[in-house]
Amino acid sequence: MIQSILLKNFRNHETFKLEINKPFVYIYGENGSGKTSILEGIYFCSTTKSHRTSDEKELIKTNEMFAQVVIKNDDQTYEIVVSKFGKRTKVNHVEKRKLSEFLGHLNVVMFAPNDLELIQGSPLVRRQFMDFELLQVDKSYLNHLNTYKKVLKQRNSLLKKVDIKDDYTFLNILGDQLYEQGIILINQRKQFLDELNILFKANYQKFSQNVVDIIYKPDQDEASFKKHLQKQQRQDILYQTTLTGPHRDDFFIRFNAFDSKTYTSQGETRLIVIALKLALLEWIESKTNHKVVLLLDDVLSELDQQKQDIFLKTLPKQHQIIMNSVMPIDMDHIQMIELTKERTHVKL
Ligand SMILES: Nc1ncnc2c1ncn2[C@@H]1O[C@H](COP(=O)(O)OP(=O)(O)O)[C@@H](O)[C@H]1O
Ligand SMILES: [Mg+2]
């Protein structure tokens, strides 16, 4: 469990310090008071990434030199500092130069409003979701993914040069390599979505009677990918790019008989994504044997009162949860924090 959080020069927080004394923390405050930034800080210290920007200098408070997050859990202290020179991470005050030494200890799952893109966005968003979650729990997945991308790039640049009459020896070699790595990705993604689907359905049922399913849409299966790379190589040569493979994969959420991307309302989509995140939390725990902290950013908005009540009642009790909203709620056994401008600027 996270025991304390310190943000320094992080977004609008000059110094924000929070000692946690209950498993369920609820932060409320007006728009722009820095609620999302607190969750972003925790996420950043867990994953070394922001969930809302790829430009990490944005995290540094205006006119400051660095931003810092320090998180203490039961027995460790994690620290991340970002400046214009890059990022540095420490565990128990000892610098960790290798990302792999820092990652994987403080596990979080975040729900944020832009996660609706998982349903509404392009296939790229869903491929990134599958890849990001898989590589977190299985380091070998990252190797296969990187090799696949490298071979794909080589093959595509060769396809731009090669002529229909040329000798295809090297193209064939690259095709074989692509296939070898590609089927590992396809099989791992399939297994991930199969396992996630079971947990997802169970979580979604708590909110609604609708029938939902995660449906993997691999661009190719094992057999057809091989066939394509061999028999339809001519097409790739004509189009000068690798037309098929796991780099074109997708999945969708079937909602009753429909594709939720075009069918479900904003509120329904939100519940689907929330159930997906709760499933993900259970999935990561089952794979890693580590406790996962749930971060919920503005999760209640766009849910009607009844759905909000169900949601708060069904929140997993055995997990640490840190959530925020604009309004306070009436609930026992939670640590309520009102975020005010004064709090953000507290001097230590
Ligand atoms: N690097 C930064 N320096 C100073 N202020 C920032 C920085 N980045 C964002 N902000 C400001 O921080 C405020 C808090 O943002 P946010 O955490 O999203 O608020 P909330 O979630 O409470 O609505 C916003 O008003 C934003 O303009
Ligand atoms: Mg916010």
Automatic annotation (TrEMBL):
Please give a single GO biological process term from the UniProt record. DNA replication
Q: Indicate the secretion signal residues.
A: none
Where, per UniProt, does this protein localize? Cytoplasm
GO CC annotations on file? cytoplasm
Per UniProt, residues of the RecF/RecN/SMC N-terminal domain are 1-327
Keywords of the record, alphabetical order, are: ATP-binding, Cytoplasm, DNA damage, DNA repair, DNA replication, DNA-binding, Nucleotide-binding, SOS response
Record flagged with keyword Cell membrane: no
State one Pfam family annotation. Answer: SMC_N
SUPFAM superfamilies, alphabetized: P-loop containing nucleoside triphosphate hydrolases
Would the keyword DNA-binding turn up in this protein's UniProt record? yes
Q: In which residues is ATP bound?
A: G29, E30, N31, G32, S33, G34, K35, T36
Q: Which GO terms describe its molecular function?
A: ATP binding; single-stranded DNA binding
Q: Which family does it belong to?
A: Belongs to the RecF family.
- PANTHER family to which the protein is assigned, alphabetical: DNA REPLICATION AND REPAIR PROTEIN RECF (PTHR32182)
Main role? The RecF protein is involved in DNA metabolism; it is required for DNA replication and normal SOS inducibility. RecF binds preferentially to single-stranded, linear DNA. It also seems to bind ATP.
Q: What is this protein called?
A: DNA replication and repair protein RecF
Q: Which organism is it from?
A: Mariniplasma anaerobium
Upper classification of the source organism reads: Bacteria, Bacillati, Mycoplasmatota, Mollicutes, Acholeplasmatales
